[in-house]
Structures are given as C-alpha cells and as structure tokens.
Design a protein that fits this description.
single chain, 154 residues, mainly beta, 8-stranded antiparallel β-barrel, two-stranded antiparallel sheet, Lipoprotein
C-alpha cells in the first residue's frame, strides 16, 4: 500500500510540474511575440549662431525623456552631459548632469517648444538638495534668440 501511495504521489507531482501546453493562455500571455514593445523616439536639435553651438539629443518614452545636452559657448567652458526628466505642458523639464572643467555638476533645465524651436527658459533659481532648480517654472523667460531646431541624428 505504501508503494502504491508513493507511485500515485510521484505521478501527481510529475503531472503538476509539466510545462504548459503551447496554446495555453499562460504561455501566450508571456510569449515575446505577444509583448507590445514601444519604440523609443529619438530626435536631435541644434542651435548654431554667434560662435555658439548647443546640441540636444532626446530619447522620448511616453512622457519620460533622457538624452544628451552639449553647450559650446564662445569664450566659455564647454558643458557636456545627460538629461533625465519628463515632457509636460509642451516643455522638457529635466535634471542636467554635466561635466565642465573636470567637475561633474547638476542643475535643472527647462526647454519650451516654441514656433522657433526648443528654447531654454531662464529665471530665478534656488538650490534644493544641492541642485539648482527654477523657482517658478511657469514664469521663465524664453525671449532670447537661441532656438534649437531639428537636425538629422547621426
């Protein structure tokens, strides 16, 4: 009797551990073919004028944005780094982590999509947790001429 119980138990374990059938709902739900993978949208923008160049490369996934931002301003130190943030109300609001003169720094950047292109907003800043951020994002000045316009990404 003990041997019969062991055989029945082993059979039940074997059946329970068997992989799902190919057409089972579990396998269909987790198959790579059934996954919806959104393509991340990559775009590049540039401003060139008055011996200054600004280059912005964005990778947009829904409302999240990452990318690179480089400033080469005449008679100023080059800033080169990455952005990470979100797109909200036709604006990019991101943390810019950059290298300048061998020192890594962070600050908030805000770009607004205007009819001229993406323009960085300037205004009063305060330091929060060691990072300069805009005091009031809704009252930034975008009246300068430095508009980043679309270019092909390399």
């Amino acid at each position: 009797m003990k041997a019969l119980t062991t055989v029945i138990f082993a059979s039940l374990v074997f059946v329970a551990c068997k992989a799902p059938k190919e057409d089972s709902p579990i396998e269909v739900a987790f198959s790579p073919d059934a996954e919806h993978i959104e393509e991340i949208n990559t775009e590049c923008f540039r401003y060139v004028g008055n011996k200054d160049t600004v280059l912005l490369t964005t990778h947009i996934d829904g409302t999240n944005i990452t990318g690179t931002l480089d400033y080469v301003l005449f008679e100023k130190d080059k800033n080169s780094g990455t952005i990470e943030g979100e797109i909200r109300d036709n604006r990019i609001i991101a943390e810019y982590t950059f290298m300048s003169e061998g020192v890594t720094s962070k600050r908030q950047v805000v770009f607004k999509n205007t009819e001229d292109g993406w323009k960085e907003g300037y205004g009063e800043m305060k330091t929060v947790d060691g990072i300069p951020v805009q005091v009031n994002i809704d009252s930034l000045d975008y009246s300068h001429q430095m508009a980043l316009t679309p270019i092909p990404c390399d």
